[in-house]
């Protein structure tokens, strides 16, 4: 749900531009050049995180389809994405930065930013007392995803992002169809 990082966050994947939807079920115009630029940055960040945490195709698919991760590497993939955007730094969520990043794409008074302002605070409660960086980031991200469903990543774009990941660098025994990577 959240389309994030690098001026977006893994989280910003869910809080991108609020314009007439071109995909069914979403309120984001994924054809907008500004949004496309953020998506490209998000994919580059994800490629780096795949290598850093040795994420699997299932881990990345879960992230991009806003599903809770089912593996430790999936949780750590979410952590990597949020840390690369500085939304999480040393185990602390920077809500102000998250909201600022969302406002760059959506505008300060947009519906996305207003909703994110309250939801991001609610999600802080879900991670209170957590010290494990992967669990903390994953839980926070899951909370955002569950509460901002209308900004979801369309499945076809999620699958396209997964196809661009360099899994062949971390998992040499993957089937050929999953090894393809377009950089």
Fold and architecture overview:
This protein is mainly alpha-helical and 183 residues long. The chain has a single domain, classed as Pheromone/general odorant binding protein domain (Recoverin, domain 1, Orthogonal Bundle), CATH 1.10.238. Helix content is 54%, strand content 2%. It is built from 8 helices and 2 strands. Strands 1-2 form a two-stranded antiparallel sheet. A hairpin with a 2-residue loop joins β1 and β2. α2 packs across α3. The radius of gyration is 15 Å and the shape is globular.
How would you summarize the topology of this molecule?
Blueprint: H1 33-53, H2 57-64, H3 72-84, E1 88-89, E2 92-93, H4 95-106, H5 111-126, H6 133-147, H7 155-163, H8 176-179
Antiparallel strand pairs: 1-2
Signal peptide: 1-17
Keywords: Signal
Pfam families: PBP_GOBP
Main structural class: mainly alpha
- Strand/helix succession: HHHEEHHHHH
Could you say what the CATH architecture is?
A: Orthogonal Bundle
CATH class assignment: Mainly Alpha
Helix fraction by DSSP (H/I, runs of at least 4): 40-55%
Biggest sheet, strands in spatial order?
1-2
Uncertain runs are 1-26, 179-183
**Could you name the CATH topology?**
Recoverin, domain 1
Q: How would a crystallographer describe the biggest sheet?
A: 2 strands, antiparallel
* Beta-strand content: under 5%
Give the count of helical stretches: 8
Per DSSP E runs of 2 or more residues, the count of β-strands stands at 2
Radius of gyration: 15 Å
Q: Looking at the structure, what is the overall shape?
A: globular
Number of domains: 1
């Amino acid at each position: 749900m959240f389309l994030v990082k690098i001026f977006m966050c893994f989280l910003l994947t869910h809080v991108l531009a609020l314009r007439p939807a071109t995909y069914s079920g979403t309120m984001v115009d994924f054809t907008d050049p500004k949004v496309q630029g953020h998506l490209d940055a998000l994919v580059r960040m994800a490629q780096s995180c795949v290598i850093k945490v040795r994420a699997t195709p299932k881990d990345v698919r879960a992230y991009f389809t806003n599903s809770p991760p089912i593996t430790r590497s999936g949780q750590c993939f979410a952590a990597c994405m949020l840390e690369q955007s500085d939304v999480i730094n040393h185990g602390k969520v920077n809500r102000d930065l998250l909201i600022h990043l969302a406002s760059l794409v959506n505008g300060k008074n947009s519906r996305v930013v207003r909703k994110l302002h309250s939801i991001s605070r609610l999600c802080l409660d879900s991670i209170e007392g957590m010290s494990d960086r992967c669990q903390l980031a994953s839980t926070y991200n899951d909370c955002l995803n569950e509460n901002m469903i209308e900004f979801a990543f369309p499945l076809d774009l999620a699958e396209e992002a997964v196809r661009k990941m360099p899994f062949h660098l971390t998992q040499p025994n993957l089937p050929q169809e999953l090894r393809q990577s377009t950089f």
